[in-house]
Amino acid sequence: MESAENLSEQVVGAGPDAAPIPVNVDTAVLLLGAGVTAITHPLLYVKLLIQVGHEPLSPTVGTTMFGRRVLYLPGFFSYAQYIVKVDGKKGLFSGLSPRVISSAISTVVRSKVKQQVELLSKRNDIRTSLRKVVQETSHEMIIQCLSRVATHPFHVMSVRCMAQFVGREVTYGSMFSSIVKIFKEEGVAGFYVGFVPHVVGEVLFLWCCNLLAHFINTYAVDDSFSQASAVKSYTKFVMGIAVSVLTYPFMLVADLMAVNNSLLQVFLLTLPSLSPGCTAGIT
After folding, report:
1. Nearest residue to 95 via CA among 137, 27, 134, 46
2. Number of neighbours of residue 149 by Cβ within 10 angstroms
3. Which of 52, 75, 162, 247 has its CB surrounded by the most CB atoms within 10 Å?
4. pTM of the predicted protein model
């Protein structure tokens, strides 16, 4: 954020008293976040439907590189084409509004909390020290938890708007009607179903990713290597991909819990162990 503000000041030629610059940058960040959220929403939509066990398309017969015949499950494009066929192109963006609002709130909360945390903390010039990594990760954890508290209700609404595609319901429509329905049927607790596994997964991701990247950069990467700085800059990114595989079960549980007690037909798909007699009472 600071580098972007400095770049803006250099381009415009404004002095230190140019107050509107941070506001413009924050607005640009909000718009960029909303754009990325909108672009990636169809991918998350398909991902959620697969998570809840909705398989409307039959597997296709194919062959491996060794010539063995196998069955392939539908991919993203096949699933997306099916959604377009049923609901049109607009259907790919069901549940987008809560996600956009969640992204905006998350950006604002992270920015404000980060400023306060930096003011209260003492900066350490030793960048490679374990103590600094622990301190920075602790600050990131606080920011992430507060952001999740503020945005999780919108995550629940978005998940339910997408999940009702399975049963073709229209229970969760606009933002206002979704808020009223959840509050009326489940109370305030209904907005935070799946909150604990989601936070646990994000906290584990932060600590594992940061600590692993620190230990690898400190003990595995030789500083005498000519490309050591470039390798270190990508270590955290690579560790993030690896750790996300380990923390994915927490995100899966959080998404499944978000549809529990929603009275949607998809709720029955998440209960394969229940007998027909038990599920009859739920519907």
Report:
1. 46
2. 13
3. 162
4. 0.77
